[in-house]
Design a protein that fits this description.
By secondary structure, this protein is an alpha/beta fold. Helix content is 48%, strand content 15%. It binds ligand 26Q. Residues 117-120, 123, 268, 270-272, 274-275, 280, 357-358, 363, 365, 432, 461, 650-654, 672 line the site of ligand 26Q.
Length: 819
């Protein structure tokens, strides 16, 4: 691999040039934001030649192209990551120091690109990093939301959502590509025109917008490969381009302008929850239609037989959100390319592949047919025909089994079931961890698995070690390199198992614990600056950071904190290792119970942190605005990783892997990828507790369990629950947390009491937490366990995940880029 050498002089010149050109300023009078922008421009300048060379090389090889279609790309900051992958981080840091500038400080001037909610969006970002690093061509296709994931403020303990103005100062890395703009049509009706004995379908009376792509570079690590994240923005159709029919229609011009304004305005902040909003479907079709149109156009530039489209292109659907790609590709092949239905279906089902990220019923997309067919009339016709043929096929395979047909139909009960459409239209269906895939095959999608087992496969998630170790934890990264005697783990994480032999080495243990301590000091400083709370870096940092959702059971965590506090109040001299319970989580803006849980955490923090009786033995911190950039600091500083979802509910989890890579020990249930984490590191180096997935599923099938019995029989649980309604944490207000209390003890509407088995698992959880306290007293055991966690994290690199996708699903061609 040959890299261009870093030219310090050229870089300094490049920064000064950008400052002058963009802001007509010199270093002396520029603001920090302007200097960041200028540095970013200089870095983009280092990237563009590789970007161009990569396109040329992929084209020369006629490499197969992956389109990773996703409503979310949770990229975080680009500057530091790009420098890391250009292998220029140190050089640039030094060059900037000579100019009197601090790279870390400049990195902090960049807003996170938060075009995603949580796991699914961040997975897409990790995959792009791995694909470029491994030398495969991909276009990440998504939406250029003007407002990403909201910024979270905590006021009086409550979450307040503030708009995320990430584009306010412009985005120095993006390139607008108006030459690839595509028109996208909504509404109207379909007219059938009879032409030479064939029917032609044309959409009329529609409204349309222009989709304009913006490209962001995705830099591979040390290999000159640069891929593209293409995010589409909407622009009103130029009135000059209106159909002669519509010219002078003022009303329509205004409506189309509004449509363009609305479509890309904001990311829906729901994680794992479907809300049937029309605008959301508009967003989906908007970026899918533009992406598919462009993919077909690009293929046709160098290939003549559209029937072989699938040989050079593959579409990966990131959950069901991009599923309209199936009927949209059909539409283009049928209506614009003139293929027969059989030919078009052959191409489509050899091009599309679907990833499922959840089994939570409330997350499944089911669009009302009237909404769907009014917005996308031609697409709906195609879905009807797909459904007609699909149900016919079911009837052929299972004659007389109408029950099965209704369970599998794409159109059912006035709804379009997007997951079923995705499965019917794809050649591959994958889950994101072994347990999750098994549950799909045996429970949620069992009829589909029975009918087409060959489509189903597992791809256990992964994370990129470039961002979450090399960039996020430079001290540990340097130590790993020193101990292994090589930096090759950066592109081959399996090598990290070489650390195993140091797990019991006293010097290594001391060095490791010292690094963890330094990272805890760094996080403590961040918490002091951003939350105004002092935390003790000598205490155990017990951390739960992830989206707030009932199934993730942040509530169980804070109930345990309340329980522990009660114990300490009764017995202030109780021997225990000091603990800092750290939370970070955004709740969907409309998710009342989740927001109330945030208030509860902050209310408990207020009481506990201000109580002198407990002599600093415990603290509770809620970190405001948890996001990719501060996540990097948090993982590096964690001792304990809380992965306590109700078994069977967390498809995989990826935070669990980021903690492990940074030497935190897991307390968790046997859920999602936790199962595989424990398999790698060994059960004795994790704290596993609680119901198994099978047990949970069995309870659910038999109508739940009786939490009221636990309340009546366990005095500690009784006391904690009563504190929710006796004003202990609410200045005497008995009502504030009543909803939470009720959710644990009483069924309501469709919901069973304690749907997520919090009280059922509480004792086991408290026991596991207690073992943590005891284990921490034994410093050498702890260091060994932590080092083993790092050493056994090799499987969880997204490089491994991507290799499996390439091998089993995508079959991409690897490319070398020389400059
Ligand atoms: C759907 C319809 C309308 C509005 C929003 C949505 C929506 C948005 C985001 C539905 C789901 C999501 C996000 C899901 C998600 O992040 N799932 C997580 O995916 C991770 C990567 O595979 C897994 O590790 C997690 O276990 C899973 O929860």
């Amino acid at each position: 691999m040959e890299m261009k050498k870093f030219d310090k002089q050229e870089f300094r010149y490049s920064v000064a040039y950008a400052l002058k050109n963009q802001f007509r300023k010199t270093l002396e009078d520029a603001t920090s934001q302007e200097i960041y922008q200028a540095v970013a421009h200089a870095v983009k300048n280092m990237i563009v030649d590789q970007w161009i060379a990569s396109r040329r090389e992929f084209e020369k090889k006629d490499a197969k192209t992956l389109y990773y279609l996703s409503m979310e790309f949770l990229m975080g900051r680009a500057l530091g990551n790009n420098l890391i992958n250009l292998t220029a981080y140190q050089d640039v840091k030094e060059a900037l120091e000579e100019m009197g500038l601090d790279l870390n400080y400049l990195e902090d001037q960049e807003p996170d690109a938060a075009l995603g909610n949580g796991g699914l969006g961040r997975l897409a970002a990790c995959f792009l990093d791995s694909l470029a690093t491994l030398g495969y061509e991909v276009y990440g296709c998504g939406i250029r939301y003007h407002y990403g994931m909201f910024k979270q403020k905590i006021e009086n303990g409550f979450q307040v959502e503030v708009p995320d103005e990430w584009l306010k100062d412009g985005n120095p890395f993006e390139v607008r590509r108006s030459e690839y703009s595509k028109e996208v049509k909504f509404g109207g009706y379909v007219r059938v025109i009879r032409e030479d004995g064939k029917d032609r379908y044309v959409q009329e009376g529609y409204q349309s917008v222009m989709a304009v792509p913006y490209d962001l570079p995705i830099v591979g690590y040390g290999n000159n490969v640069v891929n593209t994240l293409r995010i589409w923005d909407a622009q009103p159709i130029n009135t000059f381009n209106l159909d002669s029919f519509d010219k002078g229609d003022y009303q329509k011009a205004v409506e189309q302008e509004n449509l363009a304004k609305n479509i890309c305005e904001v990311l829906y902040p729901n994680d794992n929850h479907y809300a049937g909003k029309e605008l959301r479907l508009k967003q989906q079709y908007f970026f899918i239609s533009a992406s598919v149109q462009r993919a077909v156009e690009r293929y046709k530039q160098n290939h003549s037989d559209i029937r072989k489209f699938y040989e050079k292109n593959v579409f990966q659907l990131n959950d069901t959100h991009p599923t309209v790609a199936v009927p949209e590709l059909m539409r283009i092949l049928l209506d614009e390319e003139g293929l027969t239905w059989e030919e078009a279906w052959d191409v489509t089902t050899k091009t599309c592949a679907y990833t499922n990220h959840t089994i939570m019923a409330e997350a499944l997309e089911k669009w009302p047919i009237d909404l769907f067919s009014n917005l996308l009339p031609r697409i709906y016709q195609i879905v009807e025909e797909i459904n007609r043929r699909f149900t016919e096929q079911i009837r052929r395979m299972y004659p007389g089994d109408e029950d099965r047909v209704s369970k599998m139909a794409i159109l059912y009960n006035g709804k379009v079931r997007m997951a079923y459409l995705a499965i019917a239209g794809s050649f591959s269906v994958n889950g994101v961890a072994r347990l999750h895939t098994e549950i799909l095959e045996k429970q949620e999608l069992r009829y589909f698995y029975e009918m087409m087992p060959q489509k189903f496969n597992n791809k256990t998630n992964g994370i990129t070690q470039r961002r979450f170790l090399l960039h996020g934890n430079p001290l540990l990264a340097a130590w790993v390199t020193k101990k292994l005697g090589t930096k090759d783990w950066v592109t081959d994480l399996s090598l990290i198992e070489g650390l195993k032999k140091f797990a019991e080495d006293k010097t290594a243990q001391k060095e490791f614990m010292e690094i963890k301590y330094q990272n805890k000091v760094r996080l403590a400083k961040y918490i002091k600056e951003h939350n105004g709370i002092e935390v003790d870096p000598n205490s155990i940092f017990d951390v739960q950071v992830k989206r707030l959702h009932e199934y993730k059971r942040q509530l169980m965590n804070i109930l345990h904190v309340m329980y522990l506090y009660n114990q300490l109040k009764e017995n202030p001299d109780m021997e225990m290792a000091p603990r800092t319970f750290i939370f970070g989580a955004k709740a969907a803006a409309g998710y009342r119970r989740a927001k109330l849980t945030i208030k509860l955490i902050n209310a408990v923090a207020d009481v506990v942190n201000n109580d002198p009786d407990i002599k600093g033995k415990m603290k509770v911190v809620f970190i405001e605005d948890y996001r990719v950039s501060n996540a990097e600091l948090i993982f590096a500083a964690a001792d304990i990783s809380e992965q306590i979802s109700t078994a069977s509910k967390e498809a995989s989890g990826t935070g669990n892997m980021k903690f492990m890579l940074n030497g935190a020990i897991t307390i968790g249930t046997m859920d999602g990828a936790n199962v595989e984490i424990v398999e790698e590191v060994g059960e004795e180096y994790a704290f596993i507790f609680g119901l198994s997935a099978d047990e949970v599923i069995n309870f659910e099938k038999n109508g739940g369990y009786r939490p009221i019995d636990m309340y009546n029989s366990d005095p500690d649980i009784h006391k904690v629950l009563d504190q929710l309604t006796n004003g202990t944490y609410s200045n005497g207000d008995h009502n504030l947390f009543k909803e939470i209390y009720d959710s644990l003890l009483h069924a309501s509407g469709m919901d069973k009491a304690d749907m997520y088995f919090i009280l059922k698992d509480f004792r086991a959880y408290a026991e596991a937490e207690k073992k943590i306290g005891e284990a921490y007293m034994n410093k050498s055991w702890w260091a060994k366990a932590a080092i083993l966690n790092v050493a056994c994290s090799g499987k969880f690199s997204s490089d491994r995940t991507i290799r499996e996708y390439v091998e089993d699903i995508w079959h991409l061609d690897r490319v070398d880029v020389k400059l």
